[in-house]
Amino acid sequence: MSKQPIIAAESLCKTFPGPSRGIGRGRSQLRAVDGVTLEVMQGETLGLVGESGCGKSTLGRLLLRLQDPTSGRVYFDGQDITHLSQSALRPFRSDMQIIFQDPYSSLNPRMTVRAALSEALRVHGMVGTASEEEQRIAALVERVGLRPEHMRRYPHEFSGGQRQRIGIARALAVSPRFIVADEPVSALDVSIQAQIVNLLSDLQEELGLSYLFIAHDLHVVEHVSQRVAVMYLGRVVELATSGQIYSQPRHPYTEALLSAAPEPDPSARKRRLLLQGDVPSPLDPPSGCAFHPRCPIAEKGLCDREVPGLRTLESGHEVACHLAR
User: Fold this and answer.
1) CB 271 within 8 Å of CB 258
2) Residues whose CB falls within 8 Å of the CB of residue 243, separated by 6 or more in sequence, listed in order
3) CB–CB of 1/41 below 8 Å?
4) Does residue 286 carry a pLDDT above 70?
5) In this predicted model, what pLDDT tens digit does every residue of 146-165 receive, in sequence order?
6) How far is CA 68 from CA 33, 38, 114, 143, 210, in A?
7) What are phi and psi of 62, to 5 degrees?
8) Predicted model pTM
9) Could you count the other beta carbons within 10 Å of the beta carbon of residue 181?
């Protein structure tokens, strides 16, 4: 695996306007992504995990410039694309694609599979003749495990797993190098999840793709990712190899996530780390470390005052915690 990053975020932030604070007091700000710095290497799958609402999907869209960051930088192949206009971004669009969580809502119900794939090819000027277009569409359909007759059907005529295969084919149509897979299997049955995950892994090996794999199922992330980033309330709190994260987590939040994951072996015993309270609102985050109100090892006067940045431990983990060792 190459050590060159295909895409990188530097101190990336995204805020959204919240509800009004009252007459003359302005609007509150919801900080969905709060100073995230990370890289996805060429040919790598970086898993991104965390509770719902922590900013995972927003971060994926910021990397693709589907949303504009409030501050920070995004680099693709070493080039700063943060403030490029939509026309200047056009050459990068075919290199960066997304697979959505719900394939049904992301597919046009009035378009056949063939029409959806044809649109992607034509918009990006990927084919020259009708014959070339037909051959390319047929190859895409076959590559994702669908049959030739499926090209004439509409999204409502397919199962959830088949629709996700169509979404993958649409992403592959323009020969991307980097794909954000935004919870691509969370809406599917467990048996179908394995098929889609294996398909994505095969495509990565065959085409040299790089993935940001967003999920809340820790077992799926462990299976597909070389490295894993853990998010909490808009920040990356731990980043390490998949083996390190799952065998020796260093951040208390990562420990809690792993302890809450279902264990397929009924005879297995593991210590459950229960967190107190609820996830704070991003409209009114706690002072200092955002995790400190729920943290079992937090120290008053330190964790509630100073915001920890990512630092590298001797083990190689990058951890945003004052007390991690």
Assistant:
1) no
2) none
3) yes
4) yes
5) 999 999 999 999 998 999 99
6) 12, 17, 31, 33, 22
7) -65, -40
8) 0.91
9) 28
Q: Which amino acid is at 250?
A: R
Query: pLDDT digits over 195-253, tens only?
Result: 999 999 999 999 999 999 999 888 889 889 999 999 999 999 999 999 999 999 999 99
- Calpha distance 279→263 (Å, rounded): 24
Quote the mean pLDDT of the chain.
89
Residue 280 has phi, psi (to 5 degrees) of -65, 160
Closest CA to 215 of 189, 235, 197: 197
Whole-number Å distance between alpha carbons of 186 and 161: 11
Which residue in this structure is represented by tokens 């604070």?
Answer: 21
